[in-house]
Amino acid sequence: MITGQLKVVDKRHVESIKSGRTNRMTIIGHRGRGLKVGDELHIIYKVSHGRINLCEECLTKCDNPPDRVSQCKRYTNVFGNTTITKIEHVDLLHSTPEERNKWAQEDGFKGFENADDWYMTNYGEEWCFTPVTVVTWDKGPIAKRWKV
Q1: CB-count burial class (<10 Å; 0-12, 13-18, 19+) for 142
Q2: The dihedral sign for the CA sequence 111, 115, 117, 120
Q3: Does residue 69 contact residue 59 with C-beta atoms inside 8 Å?
Q4: Calculated CA dihedral for residues 140, 35, 134, 128, nearest 10 degrees
Q5: Within 10 Å of residue 145's Cβ, how many Cβ atoms?
Q6: pLDDT in tens, 82-135
Q7: Burial degree of 17 (CB within 10 A; 0-12, 13-18, 19+)
Q8: Residues 46, 51, 53, 57: what is their CA dihedral angle, to the nearest 10 degrees?
């Protein structure tokens, strides 16, 4: 049974998730009913403008013109399902610079400064003042599905 869904909204993370090379974790805000190790996670790519079935959010690029995407048989925005392997509750404000950099690099960024810029742009300047949950998943099933 799928317990959670993760929406990836940044195109820069698509290839690293498909390959399992670097990005196999993310942060989420604390939830009332939290996720736990062993839960099934459904990971999709969803650009944030709200429209669906657009070529720009398709993970299987093809040569069909964008106005024919509704008829495209190769369209998918689903990375796949995987299992949560680790859950950490993190207070970035009280973490050491080394811990912040390690977390940022594991999340697919060059370092904490790069991650901070991205999160401030997408979630506002207050993002790192709120404790977060770091979710790590098994990269195998997704990398195998995409055979990268």
Answers
A1: buried
A2: negative
A3: no
A4: 150
A5: 14
A6: 888 988 888 888 899 999 998 888 877 889 999 899 888 888 888 888 888 888
A7: buried
A8: -40
Strand ranges, E, within 16-103 = 25-29, 40-45, 78-90
Q: Phi and psi of 77, rounded to 5°?
A: -120, 20
Amino acid identity of 142?
I
User: Is residue 14 scored above 90 in pLDDT?
Assistant: no
List phi, psi (to 5°) of 108: 95, 5
| Mean per-residue pLDDT over the chain, rounded | 77
- Of 115, 140, 103, 134, nearest to 18 (Cα)? 140
Report d(CA 86, CA 40) in Å as an integer. 12
Neighbours of 139 (CB within 10 A): 20
Nearest to 1 by CA among 60, 83, 96, 74: 83
- Ordered by where they begin, the domains of the chain are 2-91+131-146 (2.30.130.30)
